[in-house]
Amino acid sequence: MDNIVEIRDLRKTYAGGFEALKGVNLSIKKGEILALLGPNGAGKTTLISTICGITNPGSGSVLVGGHDVVTQYRDARRLIGLVPQEINLEPFSKVKDTVAFSRGLFGKPRNPALIERILRQLSLWEKRDARVVELSGGMKRRVLIAKALSHEPEVLFLDEPTAGVDVELRKDMWDIVAELKELGTTIILTTHYIEEAEAIADRIGVISSGQLLLVEEKAELMARLGQKRLQIDLQDKLSAVPDVLVEYNLELVEDGQALRYTYDTRGERTGITRLLGDLASAGITLTDIQTEQSSLEEIFVGLVKEGAA
Amino acid sequence: MNWAAIRVIYVTEMARFFRTIAQSFISPVISTSLYFVVFGAAIGSRINEVEGVSYGAFIVPGLIMLSVMTQAITNASFGIYFPKFIGTIYELLSAPVNFLEIVLGFVGAAATKALFIGLVILGTAALFVDVQILHPVAMISFLVLTCLSFSLFGFIIGIWAQSFEQLQLIPLLVVTPLVFLGGSFYSISMLPPIWQSITLFNPVVYLISGFRWSFFGVADVPIALSLLAIAGFTALCLAAVWWIFRTGWRIRG
Question: What is the interface pTM, i.e. ipTM, of the complex?
């Protein structure tokens, strides 16, 4: 089985009537890093909370490792580690105690050697006897990760791991995620930072208003990003694209006052030189040319707007 | 059964108790001593024996019950309210544990603390008056059952409460009056007949009466009724907790 998480038509309406999830379908592959990208209130946290058992699902099903998260919650939850968005920690516990507590809660026998390895990996070993209340914000976030890893989960959910975190710590967090992936952990993280999704994810899902708008390999999304548009402003209006220019797939825009050419910057040839030559041969006079690139941000905003419409 | 989870919840809850062991120990000792000074020496000297027992000794079971009930409720309600308040409850909800395991951990720890306080008060009382225990097995059983059932009740209050004020509301407004009016410091036979009947609607009467019976062999109500009352109360609380976890009431969105 390749998919470790299978979500089918998941819906959730809160008691107040707010529909947080409107039929989400999602398969998460074993070993991948999936970034769920979306604005605040999109349903990212509700989705994670429902999978992890913090929120009751409305309808639909969620399987983790083939186990239903409601009827076979013990088997499902054993596979899951959760790093919540808020820093929710018992302030007076010692770091090593709170991490060992989490391991016990998941039914695993004590294993000080493993706890030491996790604390060292997260640069927390020096602070093992410190109380949580004495730690900096970044350290507390690491403690949350250590707790989530304490029972050796196969799937790790990180809910906005870098929200409100400084640049340095964000880079650290990305390194930690990369290391975990090396060790074979499947990672699902939510974020509203596009560059974060871009930096660490294998696949990117865009979620807005409780709907999953797309899930795509990052490379494919980046390919869309690699597309540039060349706008050619014309001296004289055209009523149609001349036949000789058909092969370029030009669009006639601005009431026939301009032509738009879309090309791939990563291709060996962009075709621009030939196009300009052909334009000249066709006797078309240009007044200006400009290029523009759509960013992931634009794609994202476009999708969110489409979704809202 | 997830025994490891029960163990870590229990140990973590007890650790909080041991962090403040001095306060946990000293406060019941001082308050018990004060009760004996006021009720035993000052007032008790003017009261004759109650049903053949000196007044000082007569109030010992009620005094233990008063502290055990309030301590059990306070400890258990705070124990589960605190994770709700600081947000660490997410971990309990996302762990492979069922309601029974969570309850055993939290309620077990709260009951242990209450039992400890009860025994400390018994020890302190023994310094002031001659305490005899006619039915030690019944005494321990009543004590343990009271610790457990009131811890369960406290656990429910902790889940129900949405603020620290609410957390204090039930113990202050309901439990303390019921315990004071439940015959902690008097036999209900000392009341006018109409009040004797009204008092029988107070569930705490049955607990204190049964507990006192295990000390002195005298009771306000039949011992079987006392046993039934405590068993019924425990069952009621268990059913409520089971329902809470089944529906996720006030803990799971």
Answer: 0.87
